[in-house]
Fold:
Amino acid sequence: MNIPSKILQNAVDQIASLPGIGKKTALRLALSLLKRNEDEISVFSNAILNLKHEIKQCKQCYNLSDHEVCSICENPHRNKQLICVVEDIRDVMAIESTGQFKGHYHVLGGIISPMDGIGPNDLKITELLSRLNNGNVSEIILALSTTMEGDTTAFYLFKKLASHSINLTTIARGVSIGDELEYIDEITLGRSILNRLPYNKTILNNT
Structure:
């Protein structure tokens, strides 16, 4: 692609560095930005800067938040005894969109994936165990993607949580094998949460 301006080329390169955006799409977006007035560009650029510098991780569940504690953890009407363990914020958003879950979350920040160099120590697993020490948690739902990496992470958590006197459940397999939660329709995901199963029974069914 022969771009006559080095400034435009640099903008295209930066936009194309985002996942899922090719050079042609990046050029189209850069040209669209070029047509905007200075105030619109200022609002756009400030939004990106604020995303990097102002957004926080909730100190309780590690969800992304504008404040030290997210709105879900602060909500007095949510069930603090029920914690849903998810991979990242996209899964929180997917589950919240179903309207079927009224507990709290714990965001791991990823799943165990040796091929990607991600091990248990890279995730918020120690922090999850710390949340159980106050004795107020009665159930943990493992709502992880039904991929090999998701199942590996779930089994690791099962072993780590075995010594705690809590109910450990997982979303029902209305979610197909290999699916990631963010791509599942709201009705299927909502039913999978409502019809969750004891985790140890899913292990027996898969052996």
Remarks:
- The two ends are 53 Å apart (CA to CA).
- The beta strands are 56-57, 64-65, 79-86, 103-107, 139-142, 167-170, 197-198.
